[in-house]
Amino acid sequence: MSDAVGIPTPDKSDDDFWTAVSQLVEPPWREPTQDDAFTMDEEVHDAVRALAERISTRLLAYRAAGKTYDPVLMAAPDVQLALLRALYEAKQSVDRLAESAATVAGRSGANYAQLGAAWGGIKRQSARLKWPHAVVRKSTSESIPLHYAGGTAVVHHDAETDAWWYTATAADQREKESDPVHGTYAEAIAGATEFLLSHATPDGGAST
Prior knowledge:
Blueprint: H1 17-22, H2 34-55, H3 57-64, H4 77-107, H5 112-118, H6 124-130, E1 144-148, E2 151-158, E3 163-169, E4 175-177, H7 185-198
Antiparallel strand pairs: 1-2, 2-3, 3-4
């Protein structure tokens, strides 16, 4: 808990909310404990098993016959192959979500060294190769696309007002064009991300 002391916690209605949110907190996380890792294993297994039960041809046959299948059927080699297929889908989901998280962090001020540290301590160059578009150099005339939570947003700079604004199309096809009221690029990114998250589709897939 000592790492959390001194970190500002303004409410969204406070005037300094976006300024505080735009500042990168160091350290960004505490190291997960072994208990955290075991809990994650259990939660991932629950999600993957649910998918395996939906795609297993053996278990589909039981449902088609109107029978309740015994959990012991999970030991069948073909059901374990369905579980393995579901685990692959979980890996794909992790990769998509990691790309989204890296992009939002990078576009909001994190550098490749910090992204690499978060991704298990890989080197900066490896992080750059993994997410080549996560960190960009912004000029005041540059419009930069962001893909997140199944939607897309583009952040723009208004030279007249020296403010940032965004246009966004969410996963549910809702669209929004903000006013040029954001004082920083990071604030505009945060607003766009919030909109995309609030209109994500039920499956929550993030764009690749």
